[in-house]
Specification:
- With about 180 residues, this protein is mainly α.
- The chain contains two helices and no strands.
- Helix 1 packs antiparallel against helix 2.
- The protein starts with a helix and ends with a helix.
């Protein structure tokens, strides 16, 4: 009987140590879950900001495109006029048109450069959004795995409690038999 009691006591100590270890692991997992949730919130805010910036850049791009259209039309018209004048004669009027053409060409180049810069900024925002979405998906996956680990740990803990209670009943029964 004493040997059985010693074995039960040893078994009970091992189970208590397992329980303490499980509780610590649950605490660590809960802390990790909190950190992951905060990172998700932070990345969501960042994604909203980037989306807002992207919308502003898109609006500016539309405005620049609208500004370029009439200039492009003027550019095409001047080019046609220059061509006609060149064919008709090479007089001083051609020089005037050439100056206008050069001015428009410079302005068009500046606008195209600004348009390219806006496209680059827009592409950068899109890349940042994709990176944040990927981070968000990774964090979500980690959170899901963490939640599953917590569930499994909780299930193991409940099974341990059930076994501990069963051992206590057996121990009480043995104590009762010994006192008889």
């Amino acid at each position: 009987k004493t040997n059985n009691l010693n074995k039960l006591n040893l078994n009970q100590r091992e189970k208590l140590e397992d329980c303490v270890s499980s509780n610590k692991e649950i605490e660590v997992n809960n802390n990790s879950l909190k950190v992951s949730m905060q990172r998700i919130k932070d990345n969501t805010i960042r994604l909203k900001n980037l989306s807002s910036q992207n919308n502003l850049l898109n609006e500016k791009l539309v405005l620049i495109n609208n500004e370029i259209k009439p200039l492009k039309k003027q550019f095409d018209e001047l080019e046609m006029i220059l061509k006609e004048n060149y064919e008709n004669s090479q007089t001083s009027s051609l020089m005037d048109h050439s100056d206008d053409f050069e001015k428009l060409d410079k302005k068009l180049q500046l606008l195209m450069k600004e348009k390219d810069e806006l496209f680059n900024k827009k592409n950068q925002v899109v890349l940042n959004q994709e990176r944040i979405k990927n981070q968000f998906n990774l964090i979500s996956l980690q959170e899901k795995n963490l939640q599953e680990s917590v569930k499994e740990l909780s299930k193991a803990h409940n099974e341990w409690i059930k076994k501990r209670d069963d051992y206590k009943r057996v121990l009480a029964s043995l104590d009762e038999q010994r006192s008889e």
